[in-house]
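@channel sequence for tomorrow's demo:
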Amino acid sequence: MWSIEEVKEDMKTRLSEARYNHCLRVMDVAKKLAEYYHYDVNKTMLTALAHDVLKELPKDQEEKWIQKDPTLATLPAKVRHGYMGAKFVEQQYGFDEEMAAAIACHTTGKKNMSLLDKIVFLADKIEPGKHYPGIEEERELAFLDLDQAIILCLQNQIRKLTRENRSVSPASQETLAYLQGIH
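structure tokens (generated this afternoon):
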């Protein structure tokens, strides 16, 4: 498996400076959450760092991925990079299945999320570069109850998308319903 420094160097070649800096901030938040919840810090940092590795993939390269795996075409464009990134990090960086799964679901969440899934999902949403109504409460809740923080985050996200007449991913709705059902 690649080291954090090796992944950083590779990602610098793949992402804009703004996207790369976002990934660094997500990694920092994920590290704090992993320490707080007593989870593998190095594994968490690597996963969080690489969560958007293919976010800025040129369209022609994205088409090549879709040709290899036509199911990618059925995914909303906004979440596709997570699924492609999951396959990429396993093949390129040697990440394990759990790390890849966390990258695949980092935009929408999923039913029965692992601790790593939850940490990467939340770190992506609450990193210090993001500002939106309700984020401060999400940040506080992240260190009290991960599930409740994700519920609040998804509720805020769905409210915002609905207000803007934008579509809400069915996966996000399923994640929210699942988490609300277990609480």
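heads up for whoever presents: The chain has one domain: 4-182.
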